[in-house]
Amino acid sequence: MKPSKAPVCPGIARYGAYVPPTRLALAAMGGREAPEGGPEKAVAWNDEDTLTLAVAAGRSCLLGFDRQRVDALIFASTTSPFQEKQAAALIARALDLPRDVRGTDLGGTLRAGTTALAIAADAVKAGSSRNVLVIASDCRMGAPGSALEANLGDGAAAFLVSDEDVLAEIEGHHAISEEIVDVWRSGGDTFSHSWEDRFVVQEGYTPRIREAVDALLGKLQRSPDEVARYALYAPDKRSHAGVSRGLGLEAGQVQDPFFGRLGNTGAAFAPMQLAAALEEAR
User: What pLDDT is attached to residue 282?
Assistant: First the structure.
């Protein structure tokens, strides 16, 4: 008898990101003079949107790779300019991907980017795809004078999920679904809305992310100190620091969330931290 093949463990074979070069000083939003080197956020210029950011990140990811080998594309965003037209098809055309590439749009949730990575890993593991391009991109807007206006930023991250030449294996994933009114944007709304900040963090964000991290570590049979770097979503810098302390993480284990330089990029926020962690990894 021939020995059975070892199970395929899919992972990230290539990655890329794009940050708009335009910066907005946080002090300027309050009508104050912006000090040099002060906190700021990245904002898309008037000729950029969620799709152009996604294409730029995709180009960075696929640089030097045969694009005809990409057989699936998952685009994750909460700010796609289209409600009924498939954005993935437009991105595939701009990136010169094969015409028979399987395109999918994911939206409606800020975890669309990490969900897309999980779906891509499952597709590769099942054998229905070999090279899945995942792109997460967002350009969210907070109402003028709100906390969201200061915390939100624009950016995109892209990953090629494959079973060949893998840089980082995707060993598992875990998610928790919980109904809570925290941050939302209804059809026709220009700006994202948020319930009372303390309620959102104390009753929504903090307990759920701690539960999800603990459950994932349990699935993987790992202790917290066995993980070199944590790329954690957070609505703001303070809550990010609080949940990191609550998880008992050392400072060197926490990936820089880029608050004060980039801002919360929505569906692309945790993926952009992941790209940065890969860039810094040995």
Answer: 78
